[in-house]
Amino acid sequence: MTAPARRRILLVAHPRRQEAHDLAAGVVQRLHDAGIEVVVQSDEAAAVNLSAQDGVTLANADNPAEGCELVCVLGGDGTILRGAEMSRGTGAPLLGVNLGHVGFLAEAEREDISATVEHIVARTYTVEERMTLDVTAKVDGSPVYTSWALNEVTVEKANRERMLEVVAEIDGRPLTTWGCDGAVVATPTGSTAYAFSAGGPVVWPDVEALLLVPISAHALFARPLVVGPQSHLALEVVPDTLGTGALWCDGRRAVDLPPGARIEVVRSQTPVRLARLSRSPFTDRLVAKFDLNIHGWRGQARREEAARNGRPTPPA
After folding, report:
1. Which of 22, 54, 62, 77 is catalytic?
2. Do 262 and 148 have their domain in common?
């Protein structure tokens, strides 16, 4: 009989956080003891002081998640987005352990690391797919840049002292022209990130939609828009505008935009797969991450909890 293939996990850790270094060493040891091979990128291995003596294997530089069943990330949302770049399209789901502040993309917190490793070893997690965006920048009709985003695609002014003039287009028809600081095209996953800061709505992750949110627009019609997942969105930098722009994908990948540039954004056919350790509602995640005040809630679940604990039942 052929021996079963050894399990492989790609570990991604924040390179400049000592806490990430310390946690990474412990995670490697526990996974190694469970017979799971831990793969780390070479530059990251040096940054977090991991070597073959610690039981790690150096990853393929071109495809770090190759042959891995999971990508485990120790860090904040920025590090998790970096892990998403490695996992997308490989089939390996992404599991984030939050070492940052909000950590909306993370599934676990730093204090949950022991239980998280146990879930990885036992494979007791579910996987959900999150929509991503494909973006193409064109100049004079010719593509000059292509990329993708999990959270958002942003067109921003490059000069702080000058406004950017942008024409918004939906499904091949012009909508409006904004004199603005920029505009955000976001996924439901990204609705709690930059789009939220720009005044956009929070969209539940199981809703299939695209968001278009202007940033500090000087216009009467400057409300955020929610459109269907098959819509084609475009933003054109007006040629005679005084300012130049920049295109950002997830705040990580950028390219300068000259006046007249056209940015086209559509739903991608390649999602990012996220590993989930619990089935708690998105409402609970929202309350926890934003520390929302729910004092005074008298829902059925609260009454049932009070009854189980022998406390007085709140009135309906």
Report:
1. 77
2. yes
pLDDT in tens, 12-51: 998 888 888 889 989 999 999 999 999 998 888 887 777 7
**Torsion angle of the four alpha carbons 25, 31, 36, 42, in this order, in degrees rounded to the nearest 10:** -10
Angle (CA) 230-273-227 rounded to 5° is: 20
**What DSSP state is assigned to residue 271?**
P
Select from 225, 252, 152 the least CA-distant residue to 194.
Answer: 152
- Same domain? For 93 and 13 the reply is yes
Q: Is 22 a catalytic residue?
A: no
Q: How much is the average pLDDT of 43-69?
A: 86
Please state the residue numbers annotated as binding site for NAD(+): 77-78, 82, 151-152, 162, 181, 192-197
- Same domain as 79, residue 140: no
Q: Is this prediction's pTM over 0.85?
A: yes
Residue 153 pairs in a beta bridge with 185, 249
Q: Which domain holds residue 40?
A: 8-130
Q: Tell me the C-alpha distance between 65 and 86, whole Å.
A: 6
Question: What mean pLDDT do residues 232-252 have?
Answer: 88
Q: Of 130, 154, 172, at which residue does a domain stop?
A: 130
Nearest of 42, 2, 46, 58 to residue 21 by alpha carbon: 46
Residue 302 — very low, low, confident or very high, per pLDDT cuts 50/70/90?
Answer: low
Number of domains in the chain: 2
Q: Which residue stretches of the chain are H helix?
A: 18-33, 42-47, 77-87, 113-122, 194-197, 282-290, 300-308
